[in-house]
Amino acid sequence: MAAKEGKGRGKASQAGSPSKTEAPSRKRGAAKQRETASRKIATKIAKALSHPLRVQLLTILNDRLASPNELSKELDEGLSQISYHVKVLKDFEMIELVKTEPRRGAVEHYYRATSKVYVPSWIAALWPRSIRGTMSASILEEIEQDLVESIEAGLLADRLDEVMTRDSCFFDGQGREEVEEAAAEFFKKFEKAGIDSNRRRRNGEGDGEKIQTTAAVMVFTSLKGRKLKVKDKD
Q1: Could you read off the pLDDT of 21-40 as tens digits, one per residue?
Q2: CB-based burial of residue 203 (10 Å sphere; 0-12 exposed, 13-18 middle, 19+ buried)?
Q3: Other CB atoms within 10 Å distance of the CB of residue 72
Q4: What phi and psi values does residue 49 have, to the nearest 5 degrees?
Q5: Rounded to an integer, what distance in angstroms lies between the CA atom of residue 231 and that of residue 129?
Q6: How wide is the angle at C-alpha 166 spanned by C-alphas 165 and 170, nearest 5°?
Q7: What pTM, to 2 d.p., does this model score?
Q8: How far is the C-alpha of 62 from the C-alpha of 59, rounded, in Å?
Q9: I need a surface site. Which of 21, 90, 141, 143 has the fewest CB within 10 A?
């Protein structure tokens, strides 16, 4: 009897577990589903940011709340054009309506970005080079503006916990991917620190300081150390 029960349990166990041929098939199916989902996300982001003005709008709304009227004045663009591109970003769920306020007989709508403007390489690789260039140029302009304003206000280097560093190094493909992952991890921690700071202020905890802080991380292919190709003279 004991032997038969053991044999029965063995059969039940085999019936309940995937066969050796089924397991790889399921893994391939799951991988294909992830790839399809990733491509849908990439397509959505690429369409949302296919216009340079939308890149500028999303970059601003990534930092603060703003209304189409305020964005129109800041970017010196027509209100109707700004409103159209704001609607596109909202339709693609890149921004969200946060609040409304009455303004001279009308209602002003304030938006903010639903996610940080960070595009991983697996999405950027699917974009045309023109879109990648537009995105990079817009972010660089924002960094430059932040630096100039900080210098003019005498805020640059005003604290001992300020960080300024630069390095250059040769990497192979795997090393470059590891650096990208490290940059993404930094921004995750940066965002979490901001959320924790806001929570402490709301609860009346912490040191009571409120310090506007900008962080910029750039990982790019540089010219230094590379040999320039010079055409041979005839």
Answers
A1: 555 666 566 656 655 555 56
A2: exposed
A3: 18
A4: -110, 20
A5: 26
A6: 145
A7: 0.53
A8: 5
A9: 21
Tens digit of each residue's pLDDT (9 = 90 or more) over 128-175: 666 666 667 767 777 888 889 999 999 988 888 888 888 888 899 899
Greater model confidence, 141 or 101: 101
Q: Which residue has the higher pLDDT, 90 or 229?
A: 90
Nearest to 97 by CA among 113, 83, 81: 113
Q: Which of 30-44, 93-107, 186-200 has the lowest mean pLDDT?
A: 30-44
Collapse the DSSP code of 81 into the 3-class scheme (helix H, G, I; strand E, B; otherwise coil) and give the result: helix
Q: Measured over all CA atoms, what is the biggest interatomic distance in the chain, rounded to whole angstroms?
A: 95
For residue 195, the one-letter residue type is I
Burial call 204-225: b when 16+ CB within 10 Å, e when fewer: eeeeeeeeeeeeeeeeeeeeee
What amino acid occupies position 229?
Answer: K
Per-residue burial over 168-192, b if 16 or more Cβ lie within 10 Å, else e, is eeeeeeeeeeeeeeeeeeeeeeeee
Question: What are the two backbone dihedrals, phi and then psi, of residue 125, each rounded to the nearest 5 degrees?
Answer: -65, -25
Specify whether the CB–CB gap between 67 and 111 falls below 8 A: yes
Residues making up the chain, counted from first to last: 234
The tokens for 167 are 């390095």
The residues, ordered by sequence, that sit 6+ positions from 167 with a Cβ below 8 Å of its Cβ are none
Q: For the chain, where are the alpha helices, taking DSSP H only?
A: 2-16, 22-48, 52-63, 68-75, 79-91, 121-124, 129-152, 173-202
